[in-house]
Each structure stands twice: as structure tokens, then as C-alpha cells.
Amino acid sequence: MKHCHALLLTFPLIALNASAGGIILSEMATFDSVSSAGVANALNRKDASAAMSSPAGLTHIEDYSYSIGLQYVDADFDFKGELNETTPVKTSGANQQFAPGLAYAQRVSDSVVLAGSLHAEGGLGMKYSNGLNGQNMVDELAISVINMNFAAGYQATSNLSLGGGLIVQHIISELEASHGDAKVKGDGSSTELGFLLSAMFDLSDSTYIAANYKSKIEHDYKLDLKANSQTLSKLASATTWPATLDVGVSHNLNEQMNIKIRAAYENWKDYGNASGHDMENIYSLGTSLSYTHQK
After folding, report:
1. SS3 for 162?
2. Which of 106, 143, 102, 111 has the alpha carbon at shortest distance from 241?
3. 216-225: buried (b, 16+ CB within 10 Å) or exposed (e) per residue?
4. Per-residue 3-state assignment (H helix, E strand, C coil) for 183-228
5. What is the pLDDT of residue 223?
6. What is the rounded distance in angstroms from the CA atom of residue 10 to the CA atom of residue 200?
7. Tag placement on the chain: N or C end, fewer CB within 10 Å?
8. DSSP type of residue 20
9. Mean pLDDT computed over every residue of the chain
10. Residue-wise pLDDT tens digits, 183-241
11. How far apart are CA 69 and CA 85, in angstroms?
12. For residue 50, what is the enclosing H or E element?
């Protein structure tokens, strides 16, 4: 009977150009994800953390599994531009935060494994030295995204695994702005539902492929604006967390070496439409090579 326990503490330093954009944490707080720079997300079938990104992989858990991870994210950026032909503007920003990842999975029958996870999905935000666009005003703007997944993996055939999950997503938004001596703070939150679909197929004993689709999640909420602890008004806000699709292939070159390839798509246009920003979709391609020392 095989029990899988994973404990991870990582401290990646990430530089982000995030003046008006968002991030999905490609490297979630799991061992496989961080060690492969996110490539293993689409192909994860080692432990309970598969509930976060690839629930079809849960079927490879023999009895039960739990995963505990923690990342420290350090982001910063510098911006220089022109308000008009004679007025240059500049600003810089920084933000640091911890990103946890927790998961537990339990086999309940010969063909079904159930799991739950809690992890930081991503976010955006900075504390600005000279405002969001170099004109003071917005001193800090941040959105934090936390997902709770309830997932299941089903062994459909000896080669094919299917998976799915219900996503409960919670968004927390914070704003600090100033104009002269006036200081304004705003905060708001929203909880909405989404879903995750997943499939894995073994082509041979050494090669398998996987595909995962995560739905977009739309949030409508209000920011409570306050000045000197007095409520000013409620500002309507909307956030659409993007849909993602990834596919991958894993191949064992020999008993010690494995190569993984992942292609992914993130629909950030929907996020931009909801927030009033002009944003482009993201396409990515990654590969990782791992070596396991055997005595």
C-alpha cells in the first residue's frame, strides 16, 4: 500500500511587468509544479495536488495522499512614459506575498478517488511610488484570488482517466488612493463558482498525454470607499478570472530521466473587458527535464 506525502517550501523571486495586468500562478505551491516551472501542472498524477490542476491524475493514488506547499512571491516593476509631449511620468511598484497550497485525496473505490484542495490561484497588485500611472492618485491596488477545489478522478478504462472539479473562488480587492490631503481606502470581495475538466491517456508504459480545461469565473461586487473611517460610497467593480486550457505529454526517456512538454492558453481578453483594460490572450509553451538518482 503506497502512501504519498509531499512537503514543500520554496522561495522563488519573480520580476513582473504588471502595471496594468494580472497573473495566474503558473508555479503553484507543489513540488512538481515549482521544480518544472509550471510545466508539470497539466500532467500531475503523483499526489493530491492534482486536484488543483489535473484531477484525472488523481486515479494514480493507491490509497490516500496529502500535499502541503508554500511559495513566497516577490514582484516589482518600473514604468516610464509621457502624459503629453512635455510632461514625462514615471512610477515603480512592489508587492510581496505568500502563496499556500493544500490538498488531500482519498480512494473510495477501485475506480474513483475524491479530493479537496485550497490554494492561491493568483492575483495582481502593487504599492506604487508615484501612483498607478505616474500621476499619484492610486497608491495601492491589489486583487487576491483563492480557490477551493472539490475534485474527483475516475478510471474509465485501463488507459483512460477522467476527472472534474467544482471550483469555489474567492476574490479580495483593495484600493488606496490620495489627492492632496485626502486619503481614500476601498475594499470588497466576491465568491463565485467555476469548474475544471480533465483527461489523461496512457499511450504506452513510458508515455502519457493529458488535457485540462478551467472555466472562466465572473465576479460582480462593490468596493466600500472610506475616508477617515467614514463611508463615502460603494463603487461597482467587476472581475472575470480567465478560462484556461492546457495540454501536455510526459515521456520517460529511461528509468531515470523524464521529459514533459506543456502548451497552455489563458483568455485574458475577458478579464480586460470586465476591468476596462485592453489585454491580450496568453499562449505559452514549456518543457522540463527531470533526473531521478537511483542507488
Report:
1. strand
2. 143
3. ebebebebeb
4. EEEEEEEEEEEEEEEEEEEECCCCEEEEEEEECCEEEEEEEEEEEC
5. 82
6. 28
7. C
8. S
9. 81
10. 788 888 999 999 999 999 999 999 999 999 999 999 988 888 887 767 777 777 888 89
11. 49
12. helix 50-53
Report the alpha-carbon distance of residue 45 to residue 104 in Å, rounded: 13
Q: Which residue has the cell 492534482?
A: 50
- Give percent of the chain with pLDDT exceeding 90: 42
User: Distance (Å, rounded) from C-alpha 198 to C-alpha 266?
Assistant: 16
Q: How far is CA 113 from CA 9, 190, 205, in A?
A: 26, 30, 22
Q: What is the pLDDT of residues 146-187, one digit of tens each?
A: 999 999 999 999 999 999 999 999 998 887 777 666 778 888
Rounded-to-integer distance, Cα 189 and Cα 123, Å: 13
Report which of 266, 246, 250 is spatially closest to residue 258, judged by C-alpha positions: 250
139: closest CA among 101, 188, 174, 171?
174
Q: Report, in this order, helix, strand and coil percent for the chain, each rounded to 5.
A: 10, 65, 25
Could you tell me if 83 and 89 are in contact, meaning their C-beta atoms sit under 8 angstroms apart? yes
